[in-house]
Amino acid sequence: MFGGMERNDTGAVKHVDVLIVGAGISGISAAYHLQTRCPDRSYMIVEARAAIGGTWDLFRYPGVRSDSDMFTLGFSFRPWTGGKTIADGESIRTYVEDTARAFGMDRHIHFGVRIDRATWSSAERHWKVEGNGLAGAFAITCSFIDLCAGYYDYAAGHAPVFAGADEFEGAVVHPQHWPADLDYAGKRIVVIGSGATAVTLVPALAATAAHVTMLQRSPSYVVAMPAVDAVATWLRRFLPAGAAYSAIRAKNILSSIVLFAAARRWPAVVKRQITGQVQRALGADYDVSAHFTPTYAPWDQRVCLTPDGDLFASIRKGEASVVTDTIDRFTARGILLTSGQELAADIVVTATGLTIKLAGGIAFAIDGKAIGFAGRLQYRGMMFDGIPNLINTFGYTNASWTLKADLTASYLCRLLNMMRRRELLVAVPINDDEMMARAAFVPFSSGYITRVSASLPVQGQKKPWRLNQNYLLDVIALRTGSLRNRMRFTT
């Protein structure tokens, strides 16, 4: 059953049971579960970058931080011991690196390896994976692929073309590629965008800039959250570290589920609560309806967090401001808006979003025939109809990414162990209901999703093809549910 780790005559690995693509939070979580729950399985992690961390190694813009609490973004098997609930990027990167070293996952990582294609052979019952590494061409076979490469393009973010941009005399910067030597102290800065990145950048830049303007086409929901969880601090005082972490994690999971359910059940009420909080933070005279009241319901797009209300504090102090308008064109001195107002700027930051890139951009084929993911049914939010021995780790959009990554890794281990017991080699999700209604892959109206909706997989209206977006339901389905439901196995 499976091939273990095999090497060629030069000592290079030529086959592993599981190939993990990506050494970020998802990849490190998957590796831990594999070596703990499936110790008889060999695995390798390939990482295109030169370091562990994924998102948290890539993003280096000022103020970069988590957009969910660290007690659920952290690993289930290694407590987050930092003092802050919303942590900075460097602390998260260090936590992931330390975790990989502490459990030995770092010894399984091959850095600088970019995978180009993966081909399944039905005759040989394995994947052949090819790409390029630091030593040249890279090739390996594996029984399973676990995609932990995230969902966006690391090479480039979404960058709209603005009229007159070539006339602008200042610097234009995308947060995904922040220059380490950019001096913004005393400068006038315009941040284009209203999502999590913009909400993070504005107060961080405002601390030393002359003034920062957040220019948004439409508002987002922004909620203030304490940077330090008082309940967590109390529990840590009276409980052992592991028990405190589990209790805090459970509290935060339940809170997020309840709040999301309330937003779906009573959207108007939750909307009033959020905008009311903003009004109290900014004062009775501030135009919250124009700048912080979206037209969509809460959680139709991700809700942005501002730790200790730092964004609101910057606005109150006059260090930052929000303008809701559309761009007519760039000018030599700044940005001309459709309303006729011109925003003076020395630096423009285009926090305009991500570019979706599923499966790390790998080209997949089965027996030499190219396959794609567009319109393909997803199975339990992690596999795909008709594609054998392939796991895709995709976290929650309404909670911490790590929660679903952890469940996905756990499910893979259950599947592998069952297949070993029964001497099965291949697992393929098969849909036998062609009339089943389809729905969007992710029920979000965010621009980065809608821009590429036609190229994304879809979900069905029935289990196991429906995406739960609910941790408790997924715990039941993925940890205890049937492994044979709509799954075809071969020996």
Descriptive notes:
By secondary structure, this protein is an alpha/beta fold. It contains 13 helices and 26 strands. The strands form seven sheets. Strands 1, 2, 3, 4, 5, 6, 7, 18, 19 and 22 form a ten-stranded mixed beta sheet that branches. A five-stranded parallel beta sheet has the order 8-17-9-10-13. A hairpin with a 3-residue loop joins strand 20 and strand 21. Helix 5 crosses helix 10, helix 6 runs antiparallel to helix 7 and helix 7 crosses helix 8. The radius of gyration is 24 Å and the shape is globular. The model has no long low-confidence stretch (mean pLDDT 94).
Give the helix proportion (percent range): 25-40%
| Largest sheet features | 10 strands, mixed
Tell me the overall shape.
Answer: globular
Q: Tally the beta strands.
A: 26
Low-confidence stretches: none
Instruction: Please state the structural category.
Output: alpha/beta
Overall residue-averaged pLDDT value = 94
Rg, alpha carbons: 24 Å
Distance between the termini: 9 Å
Strand content: 15-25%
Q: Give the count of helical stretches.
A: 13
Short characterization:
The protein has 491 residues and is an alpha/beta fold. It is built from 13 helices and 26 strands.
List the helices and strands and how they pair.
Blueprint: E1 6-7, E2 13-21, H1 25-37, E3 43-47, H2 55-58, H3 70-73, H4 89-102, E4 109-111, E5 114-121, E6 126-133, E7 136-147, E8 171-173, E9 188-192, H5 196-206, E10 211-216, E11 222-225, H6 230-238, H7 241-265, H8 267-282, H9 288-291, E12 304-307, H10 310-316, E13 320-324, E14 327-330, E15 334-337, E16 342-344, E17 347-350, E18 363-366, E19 369-371, E20 378-379, E21 383-384, E22 390-392, H11 401-421, E23 426-429, E24 438-440, H12 447-450, E25 458-460, H13 471-479, E26 487-490
Parallel strand pairs: 2-3, 2-7, 3-4, 5-18, 7-22, 8-17, 9-10, 9-17, 10-13, 11-12
Antiparallel strand pairs: 1-2, 5-6, 6-7, 14-15, 15-16, 18-19, 20-21, 23-26, 24-25
Helix pairs in contact: 1-11, 5-10, 6-7, 7-8, 11-13
